[in-house]
Amino acid sequence: MKRRPILDVSDLKTVFRIGGRQVAAVQDLNLTVAPGETVALVGESGSGKSVTSLSIMGLLPRKVGKVVAGRILFRGKSGEERDLATMDSEALRSIRGNDVAMVFQEPMTSLNPVYTVGEQIAEPIRIHLGRSHKDAAESAVGLLAAVGIPDPGRRARQYPHELSGGMRQRVMIAMALACDPVLLIADEPTTALDVTIQAQILDLLRKLQEERGMGILFVTHNLGVVAEIAHRVAVMYAGRVVETGAVTDVFRHPRHPYTMGLMRSVPKLGEATMLKRQGIPLPTIAGSVPSLLALPDGCSFAPRCPYALDQCRAGVPALAETGGRHKSRCIRWEEI
Amino acid sequence: MLVALSMLVFVLLRLAPGDPIDAYINPNVAMSQAEMAALRARLGFDQPLPIQYLAWLRAAVTGDLGYSIQKNGVKVLPLVLERVGPTVLLMFLALVIAIVGGIAAGIISAVQRNSATDVGCSVAAFVGISSPPFLTAILGLYVFSVVLRWSPSGGMLTPGTPFSLSDLLSHLVLPACLLSIGHAALIMRYMRASLLEVLNQDYVRTARAKGVKELWVIIKHATRNALLPVVTLIGSSIGMAVGGAIFMESVFNWPGMGLLLVNAVDTRDYPVIMGATLIIGACVILVNILTDVAYALVDPRIRVA
Ligand SMILES: Nc1ncnc2c1ncn2[C@@H]1O[C@H](COP(=O)(O)OP(=O)(O)O)[C@@H](O)[C@H]1O
Ligand SMILES: [Mg+2]
């Protein structure tokens, strides 16, 4: 089952200008998403997941952030493959919300407070599909029903402040799906929600993907969520992908010390309460994510890595094939 | 509110030095102490202040604001009411100019942040806010009417000519523009700051992610939200514009409430002062109510269910 990817990012490098200096928030990044596939992008906060998403969408803060290298090949509804990294802003705008759509982390602040949710869902339908106000408003009600909102006709006339966080995130999903995109980018869509709502939203996304067959790039810092929803996973650290492969492979045999550390810090069901009762803190990875302004030479993870050798600090390790489509950016992947 | 305002004005007027009776006396006619006492009694000035005030208030609630002292036998209410029109006209045009100009400049400044246009607008706003209205009024009159002769130097219509709209406008535009300066500057500053903040909000990013054209992102998604604090400011601007209008009217001899009030103060025409402040106060309160309504129209969150 090898389908042509809809998204094929290669050697992406995105820089930010911070106080006159250019720092790379993302580099050497390779990533593909096939139709109907969910790829998770996982890593601690600050590892460059959102910057990767915004680079693909062409929504980096202007004047500050910029894609300086690499290609973002995207195959939209027309089937034609185009490079989003070099596309002009008007062409990119006509793709955004249409062929590729995005759901953000904060449902409370991501909806415009002064327009009804129905209007906000209808807007991309009018813009991209050229439908009339009335027609788009009807579609919006249908979309609200599709994302599991009861009494959609009434809800469509309500304002965001009248809806709960979980409902707002459903509205965001309805808005993203309004034009039937081939790719959905979901940047931590469940992080701000409580656990039961989180599970409902994940179920919803899975169901919608089955019905519509879109690819999903799912950004999260939660490995538990990755196991729930993704087919493949890319683990990011300090702007680079350090390990990638099928979820089952990576979870069964992690080939990078960072992934192993992340997995150890996710408690198994019931384990968290047990550890807490015994007064043992959850295991965490010692140290913290390095600042982009002071990235260490060589492997960025080396200062926190229990397996680090002098060799690790000599140069950035390449992403090595470890079997199948499983890859690791660790020179000692065979031993660990 | 209005009662408190009228009471305050009443007390302040009586605290001012001078005897209210003086205004009634023709200085060229000798008057005995007894005659003066009789006049005082007839006009009620011999009663204690609270009684005098209550008498005024009792009449006022029935719409009787008394008679002007200076213009013999002219009732205060019609005298004041005929001045409302010109003042409302002047303030209305000034505020329209201030709102349209201030909001437009604020949007352009925020969108082109730190550009030459932005810096220019900000400097102009700084100057506009810091210049006192009486200075802009006199300076404006001198430059545009006396030196450049672009505009008549006062009045509302040219005497002796039939009424025409262009004549009215030619008299109106200069004082209205001068009156709008400070408010335009303040609105511009608020609008710029408010829009800069809104442009960083998540929902603006959402709008871009939907593929909304940048112009519409600014107008539809950002400006509508950025207007919320500006609407409140505009409401209070109107109250403050009354003060500026009084200067402007006396400098340009504009036959409005301000000119009436200034003349009344000059001549100690107490009933007219009381009547004019009452009507001005009522107008300001009305405007504040309208502002609240406007706010509810732009912000669905405070609309009652
Ligand atoms: N607007 C910005 N200006 C400067 N630096 C930024 C900006 N946005 C992100 N960065 C940098 O990019 C890095 C990655 O951020 P991000 O992609 O948001 O992380 P996350 O993986 O938590 O989503 C951060 O360390 C931050 O320093
Ligand atoms: Mg993020």
UniProtKB/TrEMBL annotation, chain A:
The lineage of its organism: Bacteria, Pseudomonadati, Pseudomonadota, Alphaproteobacteria, Hyphomicrobiales. It comes from the Bacteria. Transmembrane segments: none annotated. Keywords: ATP-binding, Cell membrane, Membrane, Nucleotide-binding, Transport. Belongs to the ABC transporter superfamily. It is found in: Cell inner membrane. InterPro entries: AAA+_ATPase (IPR003593), ABC_Ni/Peptide_Import (IPR050388), ABC_transporter-like_ATP-bd (IPR003439), ABC_transporter-like_CS (IPR017871), Oligopep_ABC_C (IPR013563), P-loop_NTPase (IPR027417). The keyword Transferase does not apply. This is ABC transporter ATP-binding protein. GO terms for molecular function: ATP binding. It is a peripheral membrane protein. Residues 7-263 form the ABC transporter domain. SUPFAM superfamilies: P-loop containing nucleoside triphosphate hydrolases. It comes from Microvirga puerhi.
